[in-house]
Amino acid sequence: MTRDPYNRPVRNLFAGPAHAGTLTDGVSIIVEDQGVRVELSARAEQGQLAAMRFRVWGCPHLIAATEWACDHYEAGPVQALEVFPAARIMEYLAVPTEKTGRILVLEDAIQALGRSLAS
Amino acid sequence: MTERRIYLDYAASTPVNARVLERMRDVALSNCANPSSTHAAGREAQDIIAAAAGQLGRLLNVDPDTVVWTSGATESDNLAIGGSARHRAHRGRHLVTMKTEHKAVTDMFEALVKEGFEVTWVEPDGNGLVSPEVFAAALRDDTQLASIMFVNNETGVIQDIEALGAICRERDVLFHVDGAQAVGKLPVDLGALPVDLLSLTGHKFYGPKGIGALYIANRPGCRVEPILFGGGQQRRIRPGTLPTDLVAGLGMAAEVAATRIEADLKHLRGLRKALWDGIRSVDGLTLNGDPDGFPGILNVSVEDVEGESLLLALEPVCVATGSACNSKSQEPSYVLRALGRSDLQAQSAIRFSVGRQTTMEEVEFAAARYRDAVARLRKLAPGAVA
């Protein structure tokens, strides 16, 4: 059988995105590029990301990557948003190289969120 | 895989009919001869092929001698278009086709452009139809060939082949029809239709893959030059050893279809109506194609939903998408773009295509899954990109 374009982590994250939604009492940013749109919202308490949510208009890889990122950063320090593990995500989710640009849009969104929370 | 797969991609390919499979098996086990051989076994293979030509001829209402076997519709289209255009090149080098034709047609025309031919690409209306007036206006005094598909593979739109063919006859223009989505599914009476060349393939109507045919009318000026070389088989039009079992399978598929077309159409109409009724309430839905098109195909676009995610969310329903976004390309369907759909509409398009084995339960499941998938993805999305 031809290789499935989506590995198991992508399928699981796409099927059950626990962080989907918008926080009405947090900071929100939207980044749009490469034909996709990423909206992130977060609430910080004492330098920690108390909650993080997302909405995405994009392909399954981007949805899965954004869900993974929310889970990765939530409950950690706001400062952690400065570092985005793009290569790790690409490998874990087996993101095709032609979709690299979309993952970089997510990186832009994560870093923009960090700046918004810090200001 | 825990969920049962629901196959709604009959426009891409159909399951082989049991009688077809039985016939192919019998032939494959009983006769290994080359049909070009003159010994008894070879002559028997020739008889098997002649019988298949008779079966196909009866389905199309044509003389079996007008059938040339090929490897499928792509080769038939290439042979019909390239072979006839080159044969008539001394009379003129202008050709006419539509923007919404299958790639097997458009790419052949593009190849002819590189050989010095000139092509007029007729625009469809918003439903995908070409009017006889628009078509006639595209023809010129030096036009030698026009090619229009019977049923569009993406939208199911049925062109008025009788009217378009009549215009070609009046103007002494050869008329080729890509009948891949029509033969065996709709009544195609070539004894009555003014068609000079018609392409078909077995696997679109419950026959095997790897075998197709080209009908070449037996009338003055209707000739094609070969595009393959290497032997004198099939009157030197299409050389190569014929696969006797596959030819026999296509013949049987034609025989089965001849007895079932009306019943199949009735079945498909019921399925399409149920599918459409099941999804028509979705906000922002657009039907791509003609409401009176071939009932085996339903193509819809939806606003604010990304196509690749929609395709994954629809699993285990197997459908076709309006773009090649599962491959390396993000190119939206050129057929839907020609109908005036935006890139986003084309990219969100889903083609449901149903067939003989599709059940009402399956289309009801697919409709429910479509509604749920659209709702879920819209909830997930902050609106489509501009």
CATH superfamily of the largest domain in chain B: Type I PLP-dependent aspartate aminotransferase-like (Major domain)
Q: How many helices of chain B in DSSP terms?
A: 11
* Overall number of domains of chain A: 1
Low confidence ranges of chain B: 324-328
Write down the CATH topology of the largest domain in chain B: Aspartate Aminotransferase, domain 2
Largest interface: A-B, 22 and 18 residues
Structure characterization notes:
Chain A has 119 residues and is α+β, with helices and mostly antiparallel strands. Chain A is built from four helices and three strands. Chain A has a three-stranded antiparallel β-sheet. In chain A, α1 packs across α2 (60-73) and α2 runs parallel beside α4. The relative contact order of chain A is 0.21. Chain B has 386 residues and is α/β, with parallel strands linked by helices. Chain B has two domains: 6-13 and 261-380, Aspartate Aminotransferase, domain 1 (Alpha-Beta Complex), CATH 3.90.1150.10; 18-257, 3-Layer(aba) Sandwich (Aspartate Aminotransferase, domain 2), CATH 3.40.640.10. Helix content of chain B is 39%, strand content 14%. Classes of the chains: A alpha+beta (119), B alpha/beta (386). At the A-B interface, β2 and β3 of A face α8 of B.
Task: Give me some keywords for this one.
heterodimer, A: 119 residues, alpha+beta, Sufe protein. Chain: A, three-stranded antiparallel β-sheet, 4 helices, B: Aspartate Aminotransferase, domain 2, seven-stranded mixed β-sheet, four-stranded antiparallel β-sheet, 14% strand, globular
Which SSEs are present, and which pair or pack?
The complex is a heterodimer of chains A (119) and B (386).
Chain A: H1 8-15, E1 27-33, E2 36-45, E3 48-57, H2 60-73, H3 86-92, H4 100-118
Antiparallel strand pairs in A: 1-2, 2-3
Helix pairs in contact in A: 1-2, 2-4
Chain B: E1 6-7, H1 18-30, H2 40-60, E2 67-70, H3 73-87, E3 94-98, H4 103-114, E4 118-122, H5 132-138, E5 143-149, H6 161-170, E6 174-178, E7 197-201, E8 212-216, H7 244-279, E9 285-287, E10 297-302, H8 307-313, E11 317-318, E12 320-321, H9 334-338, H10 343-347, E13 350-353, H11 360-380
Helix pairs in contact in B: 1-7, 2-7, 3-4, 7-11
